[in-house]
Q: What sequence folds into this?
């Protein structure tokens, strides 16, 4: 993934200026994409809490990136749920490889 390859709005039009300023400073999304995808590719399908633990990220960071990654075709839902660290059910995610994209 190259710098600037994936751009998503990080603030809504009606958000306050402080949100737009904070959004402009986000530079870690691509490194998060890589860490999340690598964890899923290496260890298989899992929920956001487990992804976060294995990728060295906070669960909230993973939760923000997964929908973006889904739109990019990097990850997808398995249709299953797994138990989160808090005991709740959460969606299970899987890596989508380049081969699966072209198949």
A:
């Amino acid at each position: 993934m190259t710098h600037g390859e994936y751009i998503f709005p990080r603030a809504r039009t009606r958000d306050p200026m402080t949100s737009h300023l904070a959004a402009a400073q986000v530079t870690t999304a691509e490194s998060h994409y890589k860490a999340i995808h690598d964890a899923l590719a290496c260890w298989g399908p899992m929920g956001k809490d487990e992804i976060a633990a294995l990728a060295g990220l906070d669960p909230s960071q993973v939760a923000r990136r997964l929908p973006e990654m889904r739109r990019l075709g990097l990850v997808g839902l398995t249709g299953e749920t797994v138990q989160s660290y808090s005991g709740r059910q959460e969606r299970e995610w899987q890596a989508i490889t380049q081969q699966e994209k072209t198949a």
In short: Helices lie at 17-24, 29-43, 48-55, 59-72, 98-102.
